[in-house]
User: What shape does this take?
Amino acid sequence: MDSITLALHHYLNHPTILHFTWSPPLTFASSPHFLISAILTYLSLTFLLFLCFPLLSLPPRLLKPISAFHSLLLLLLSLILAVGCTFSIIFHTSHLRYIVCFPPGTPPSGPLFFWAHLFYLSKILEFFDTLLIVLSNSIRRLTFLHVYHHATVVIMCYLWLNTSQSLFPIALVSNASVHVIMYLYYFLCAMGMRPTWKRLVTHCQIVQFVFSFCVSVLMLWYYFTELGCSGIWGWCFNAIFNASLLALFVDFHGKNYHKKSRDGKRL
Assistant: This one.
């Protein structure tokens, strides 16, 4: 265990991580133009794919290896993000309070912002989830929740960096951890296994949103009782987005799992 900790400490002290600075438009994908173009491209292609999906489906023998690779890639990336950000919090945060409330005027630089940048880019990579849904001929899975979540979460991550938003380290670790579970489920499905714990993925996502609201109470306490916290307007967007997602996930849970439970009892 000590050797693993030392190895992680060594890699986390790499200059690329230690000296990272978010500096639009110099940092890759940091300009507002890139953000707007990425989202509009995603929405436009999603609409076109929705119209053309009968012509684009792939047979399972071709689609399953692609889906397995995509899920494994995002599983490993999510694991790296969760572990990397956690150890950066431990080794490079001068005060644990800062993971909840950055001091006003905190510059977007250092290890935590490196992981936030990588997390932001990973959300763009997740756009391929939509293409795989279309290619699997499962257009019914292309819901408003799916498209809304994928398009808007990129804006949220951009604001983390652009406003030096307080609380994002906790949000990053919790979200990346949930995505490890989610993409493990997708990977196993693509490999021909069908885990029985699909409902666990939705439960973890709902718990994540509830947890974020609970931690936000502590951040707001610091904000109003002391000198304030950095990125409060970014947090406001984050809070509204999380509230909308929580409502949509609860609705999704009710429509899918409660209905199945009722149908099972009737049988």
The mean pLDDT is 88.
